[in-house]
Design goal:
This protein has about 525 residues and is mainly alpha-helical. It is built from 23 helices and 2 strands. The chain has a two-stranded antiparallel sheet. Helix 7 runs antiparallel to helix 8, helix 16 runs antiparallel to helix 17 and helix 17 runs parallel beside helix 20. The protein is elongated, with a radius of gyration of 32 Å.
Length: about 525
């Protein structure tokens, strides 16, 4: 009996040990691998080339002959998702090392080893030599990418199992790594020097294997045409992306392929359209501010006519959204699903910054300057600026007040640089110029209100911007008065005293404002602008 009891105890202990090992294996997650990876040796280049063998690796002929005929016909070695992710991550870090630093790593673990990966296996090779060794991997990455996207798009399970969830935890990271690897490749400037042999080989291989192009056809194609084919190939993946962070990485990849905006105007337009589509799309998670800022900036900068996009968003979309949000409580507009009450300051900041950037690029001198076209552009910019400054009354967040005051001051300073042009062409276009001054008056008046409101709420981050803004506004008044005086139209200009009001339109005691202004030596009352 004692012997049987010991046997049962041993069997029970073995079962518990087996279950513990199984639990430990299931507990190996991405976070665990990321934590212990800095203490592993990096893989050699030959090991990284396993990625070039797709997701199925046949055994060697000698090993196949040792197996039984039935087993040899069906035995394969598959790269499972965890192994694929590990290999992709190692390949990504190797690329990062090649395109950035060439510092040799210490064999022993250091304090920075967890956040920095510097491989020693590449130290004996130049970046181009190492990329030549890794060149077969890039075409295989597209194979892995297509299969990952296929699995993600075909996910229709309502009640996924634990294994399904574990598999999904690897799919999106693998997709991100593949996009990032190609982005690092196309951003490497040394590939485009001299004969461009390596980048041409990579693009031709992608065009032949993934875009169904013939080898003879690809051999005569130059770099811009091959880059265009590759751009179209990767842009297809944007339709099946379900997370915005993946879409942003893909967008960065496509942006890295556009190296000359003048020669690649068509690709720039496609980039702008793609950024707009991503902004229109409704995502399952709340988008990050930096992602929206990047997409909106690229949507504007790569557009053929950036001013029209800024005008549409500033004059139509943003005011409509703020009105409907207050009235109906809707969280977003159907046209721009990423525009919510949380992302309004992001849209506002990007629009105002891009407006100032566009306004700064106006050329007022030279033989090719069209006076009528320049005045139309200035009038449009002033109209947009007026619409953006008026939004402060509806949405007076601290971040928006800071953005309005800082960029408003820059806009006024850039406008002052156009005064010589207005002076020399006032007699020919006095009606258009006076209309510009009149429309600008509403914006500068709103800036004065923001300055007064900043003094009232006593926020240092805003009040520190008030002196410079008021100085620019005072200079604008003097310049406008000088132009009208020199052209004998002083009757269209008059000065008045503004009432001290906050953002909501409530009057503030002038005594309180005066006591606050004494600390900064600012004038108590600011005059109004020219009014035609």
């Amino acid at each position: 009996k004692k012997g049987k009891a010991k046997i049962k105890e041993r069997e029970k202990d073995s079962e518990e040990s087996a279950s513990t090992k199984k639990d430990d294996q299931e507990g190996v997650t991405l976070a665990y691998v990321a934590a212990v990876r800095p203490f592993f040796r990096e893989l050699e280049i030959d090991a990284t080339l396993l990625l070039a063998w797709s997701d199925q690796i046949a055994l060697d002929e000698d090993e196949v002959e040792e197996l039984q005929p039935a087993a040899a016909a069906s035995t394969i070695v598959e790269i499972q998702l965890p192994v694929l992710h590990y290999l992709l991550e190692d390949f990504q870090q190797k690329l990062k090392t090649l395109v950035t630093s060439r510092k040799r790593a210490s064999f022993l673990p250091t304090a920075n080893r967890g956040s920095e990966f510097i491989t020693t296996s590449l130290s004996a090779l130049s970046p181009l030599e190492a990329l030549e060794r890794l060149r077969p991997v890039f075409a295989a990455l597209c194979v892995h990418l297509e299969r990952i996207v296929h699995v993600i798009s075909d996910d229709t399970k309502d009640d996924p199992t634990t294994e399904d969830l574990k598999e999904w935890s690897y799919l999106v990271p693998c997709q991100l790594i593949v996009f990032d690897c190609f982005e690092k490749l196309f951003s490497f400037d040394k590939l485009y020097l001299d004969d461009q042999k390596l980048i041409l080989q990579v693009l031709r291989q992608l065009a032949i294997e993934r875009c169904n192009k013939s080898a003879d056809e690809c051999c005569v194609m130059l770099l811009p045409e091959l880059m265009h084919i590759t751009f179209d190939y990767f842009s297809i993946f944007a339709t099946g992306i379900k997370e915005m962070k993946v879409a942003v990485v893909l967008f960065n990849l496509l942006s890295s392929m556009v190296r000359d905006q003048k020669q690649q105007a068509e690709l720039c337009q496609q980039l702008s359209t793609l950024a707009g589509d991503l902004l229109h799309r409704q995502w399952s998670e709340r988008p990050k501010a930096e992602h929206i800022s990047l997409l909106l900036t690229q949507h504007i900068q790569n557009a053929p006519k950036p001013a029209q996009i800024i005008e549409h968003l500033s004059v139509d979309v943003l005011p409509t959204f703020l009105k409907t949000t207050d009235a109906d409580g809707d969280d977003f507009v159907s046209e721009y699903a990423t525009l919510t009450k949380y992302t309004v300051p992001v849209f506002y900041k990007v629009l105002l910054q891009e407006l100032v950037s566009l306004f700064s690029e106006l050329e007022t001198s030279g033989d090719k300057v069209d006076e009528a076209e320049l005045l139309c552009t200035v009038a449009l910019c002033v109209k947009i600026f007026q619409a953006l400054t008026r939004l402060i009354k509806v949405k007076d967040q601290k971040t928006m007040l800071v953005v309005c005051l800082r960029n408003g001051k820059v806009f006024v300073e850039k406008f002052l640089k156009l005064m010589p042009f207005f002076t020399s062409h006032y007699n020919e276009h006095h009606a258009e110029i006076q209309e510009i001054f009149k429309n600008l008056q509403g914006s500068t008046r709103m800036l004065q209100v923001v300055c007064t409101h900043a003094k009232d709420i006593k926020d240092p981050s805003i009040t520190s911007l008030v002196p410079a803004a008021r100085k620019a506004l005072e200079m604008l008044i003097l310049k406008v008065k000088g132009i009208l005086t020199s052209n004998k139209h002083l009757g269209n200009f008059w000065l008045g005293q503004l009432k001290h009001k906050n953002i909501k339109g409530d009057e503030i005691s002038s005594q309180v404002q005066a006591s606050q202004d004494d600390d900064t030596d600012e004038p108590i009352e600011e005059p109004d602008e020219a009014e035609a």
